[in-house]
Design goal:
20% strand, 253 residues, six-stranded mixed sheet, alpha/beta, globular
Length: 253
């Protein structure tokens, strides 16, 4: 099995190609801004192989905006999302997808519902869907068990950036449960929304614990981040600590 991260461009989230003997899966698609470039990047990685399906971590535009174009570019392959996100994509809802914050339309996108624990068998390895709500009600992570690798989208924007729970459908309580689930999975690699993979079981536990403790403190603060933190930019899917959190993972240029 081959796993390739296509680094995020500008506002895009990371996209990940997982290819095996029986097929290939794209996890997250980026915005519609760079969708044609994304298709070329995918083709460059797959060579003679074809892309068989797309699986989304969330409805949010930086992860889902390019899904329709990519699907059409590969013979209308199916696009999967947890059922809570289906209506927003199929109607092109530019509010709950957050596309309006990018001054963009959200392409109406037909999808197929994916369920918790559903498995994509790729021949020499599987990808398992794990329901991880909190940033959004349909939030999904995708686990590659034999590699102990978890791909999570904006649930974990980056090691030093906690996700927001004040976007449409967000839930601070669900966030806490989802981070506790991730800790129990004990992955050795997590691909966040942006930046390189977070690697090493102990390091990952430290990162997840830092985020989890922050969310629990927010519960005690009536569901709000600290007043000293800057207000997020309109496009940001994350909060930015006033004192920077540790970040070992740097995107190479």
């Amino acid at each position: 099995m081959k796993v390739v991260r296509l680094p995020a461009i500008h506002h895009d989230g990371n996209a990940v190609i997982v290819s095996g003997r029986l097929g290939s899966l794209l996890i997250d698609a980026g915005t519609s801004w760079y969708q044609s470039l994304q298709v070329e990047r995918i083709r460059g990685q797959l060579g003679e192989k074809k892309l068989d399906r797309i699986a989304l971590t969330t409805r949010r535009y930086p992860c889902s905006g390019g899904a329709k174009h990519i699907s059409e570019s590969f013979d209308n392959i199916p696009i999967h999302i947890q059922e809570e996100g289906q209506a927003a994509l199929e109607t092109g809802d530019f509010f709950t997808t957050w596309a309006n914050r990018y001054d963009s339309d959200m392409p109406p996108t037909s999808t197929i519902a994916i369920e918790d624990k559903e498995v994509f068998a790729l021949g020499d390895g599987d990808v398992e869907a794990i329901w991880l709500p909190g940033h959004a009600p349909e939030g999904m992570g995708y686990l590659i068990p034999h590699l102990a690798t978890l791909i999570v989208g904006p649930l974990l924007p980056r090691a030093d950036r906690p996700t927001r729970w004040d976007l449409p459908g967000g839930s601070l309580i669900d966030l806490i449960k989802s981070f506790e689930t991730m800790k129990r999975l004990q992955p050795t690699s997590i691909v966040p929304m942006q930046g390189p993979a977070i690697r090493g079981k102990e390091h990952i536990q430290d990162v997840l614990t830092r985020h989890l403790e922050f969310f629990k403190q927010a519960v005690e603060n009536e569901g709000k981040p600290p007043k000293t933190w800057h207000r997020p930019a309109p496009t940001a899917l994350w909060l930015t600590p006033i004192s920077p959190w540790p970040l070992e993972e740097k995107e190479s240029v």
